[in-house]
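Lab notebook, bench 4. Continuing the backlog of folding jobs that were queued last week. Each job is logged with the same field layout so the records can be merged later without manual cleanup. Today's entry covers GDSL family lipase, a 96-residue chain. Filled in by technician R.K.

JOB TYPE: sequence-to-structure
TARGET: GDSL family lipase
LENGTH: 96
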Amino acid sequence: MPLLLEPGSKFVMIGDSITDCERARPVGEGLFGALGKGYASLADSLLQATSPEARIRVVNMGTSGNTVRDLRARWQTDVLDPQPDWPPITIGINDL
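JOB STATUS: finished
OUTPUT FIELD FOLLOWS
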């Protein structure tokens, strides 16, 4: 099945510890575990394995312990400023 993403698309994964998973600081992007040990790394591995020619970028901006309010406070710098094509969001468990 063909990949339905534009070549060079960028994902900025944002959220709490479910996203963070020990990512590199200040920005979780690149090699050697920089994306952490969670779904951001898994998504990157899957995209690179199935469509390496698409040059998809995955950036992990998850922060452990964040709530929806925390995410709102950093939305501009961590999501809008990097100009993602896709901003998957996983947040809410710390709001319970």
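OBSERVATION: The chain has a mean pLDDT of 93.
SIGNED: R.K.
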